[in-house]
Structures are given as C-alpha cells and as structure tokens.
Design a protein that fits this description.
The protein has about 325 residues and is of the alpha/beta class. It folds into two domains: about 35-125 and about 250-320, D-Maltodextrin-Binding Protein, domain 2 (3-Layer(aba) Sandwich); about 130-245, D-Maltodextrin-Binding Protein, domain 2 (3-Layer(aba) Sandwich). It is about 40% helix and about 20% strand. The strands form two sheets. A six-stranded mixed β-sheet has the order 2-1-3-10-4-11, with helices on both faces. Helix 2 packs antiparallel against helix 10 (about 280-290) and helix 6 packs across helix 11. The radius of gyration is 24 Å and the shape is globular. The N and C termini lie far apart (about 85 Å).
Amino acid sequence: MKKLIVGTIVIALAAAMGLSGSVSAQDKYPSKPISGIVPASAGGSTDLMSRAIEKVWPKYSSQPLVVVNKPGGAGVVATEFVVRSKPDGYTLYLGYGSGHDIVMPHLQKMPYDPYKDLVPIARISVHSVVVVTGAKSDFNSLPDMIAWSKKENKPITSSVSMKAGAQDITITAISKAAGVNIVTVPFAGGADAVTALAGGHVMLGAGHPSEVAPHIKAGRFKPLAVALPQRDPSLPNVPTLKELGINVSTWGSVKGVGAPAATPKEVVAYLEATLKKVTEDEEFKKIMADLDQPVMYLNGADFAKFLQEAHADYGKLIKELNITIQ
C-alpha cells in the first residue's frame, strides 16, 4: 500500500513538473523587452530610423523594443553580435542591408555569412545616393559638368563617405558610363564628405538624402541626380541618372530588420507583422519624412529577394569597375 501511495505521489509530482514545464515552454512571445542592435553610433541615419521604430513599437507590441548602439568594424561588430546571439527573437539587427552586408562580402572575407546566418524580417527604408554640387557651382546639371570636363579635358573631383561604399561605387559607375574622369576623394564618414563639398574643396558630392537634404533646403547645395532606378520620394523633383541619359542605377543604402537564422518561424512572423503595422503608422511616417528617409516596406520574403539581387548587382559593378578597398 505504501509503495502504491509513494508511486502515486511520484507520478503526480512528475505530472505537475511536466505541466509546469509545458506552461513555461508555451509562454507567449514576446514576454520581455526586445533588443534592437544598431551597427552605428547614435545620431546617424540608421540610428534615427531605429529610434523611430522604438518610439512607435509599443503601440503594436506588448513588450518594448530597446535600441542598443554597437558601432565598430564598419558595422561588422554589431552584425556578428546578432548572428552569435540566441535565436529567440529577443535580439534583432536594425540596419540589415547596409553596405557591409551587400557590398563588403565582395571585397573581403567576413566572419559570418550575411545571408545564411541571418533571416530577413522586413525592409523599412532605402536611401538613394544623391549627387549634389555646391550652390556657387557654375553647373546646374550633371550633363553640363560632364560636357565641361570633356571639353576642357579636366577631371571632376567628388567627395565620398568611404572607399568602396555605395557612394564611391555610384560615382565610379557614373565616371565610366559617361566616359569622363571623376576622381573620388574618400572621407571618414558622410558628415566629413558633405563638409568638404560645402567648403568648396571638391566639385561634386554624393550622400544620402538625410545627409544632404538639410543643405539643399538651406540653399548650400544643388541636387543634380539620384542613383535609384526610380525617383526618391524624399526628393521628387530630382531626376534619376537614367533620366539624364547616364545608364547607372544603384541600390542605395538599405535599412531593414533581421534576426539570427534559426529564429522560430512563428516569431519571425510576429515581428514581420508588427513592423508592417509600424511602417503604416502615421506617426512613424511623419517622423521618417522629417528625417528625409522614405518608408519603403517589404515583407521578409520579398526583402530576401531584394538583398540577393542587390548583392549580385553590386558584385557585377565591383568587378566591372575594378573597385578594391586598398
């Protein structure tokens, strides 16, 4: 009888423990704050976009999204941190699709595979590369500047934010397509590149709308062209390069959200749905418009295709233009 009682107690305890474990395993996601890892310092365009998501996120999720800045290694430090994180949906990569994801793998060995080790959740925005000149420049269009360079047999100088980045690739592609000598001068970031143009040290500049739009609005810069296949929503009156007869278009600076590759599908689906709601929110759209960052949402599947196409196209351009990071 005692054995029967003891056995019954053991079974009951085991059942209770099993039930407890089952409840724990079925805790609804998310049950704690989510970290959004940004591969840049505070104040940059990716950080500002991330802060906008962070602000609006609580409207559509029971748990907050907390932005964490991890600059360093041209974005590699933050991305690797996410890749090595537990794939439970509590560590996200904000800024997926940046140059170190779609360009750098063609130029150097990476400590991870940005496509196999991450799952795309959603694209949020795409920044075009905007070609600008100073307000005091004698040229009001890019074709005029190119015609002058050919006639006078003189090079055009252009500032870019970094060697082998989207801006450098764009300007180099323009140089080849137009058959003109454009010398790119790399700087340590977009702010320095913009300052060089504002100071009259170069003839051209290339930057993202959030970097150059304030100068355009203030009358310091004249916009000449955007490098996207279509016009940039934040600069609707600025023609594309193809509209000007220059057969060049690049993918710009992509800003999306990703997670470690093994993140459960149901968690990815929740995050994708929440981000869609965020991007459709009027407050979010207003913040992004004020930042000159157009909202260009894509779901995870379409974002994955976009990344693969962008990566492949940049690879062709880099090979064709013989671009290196040396």
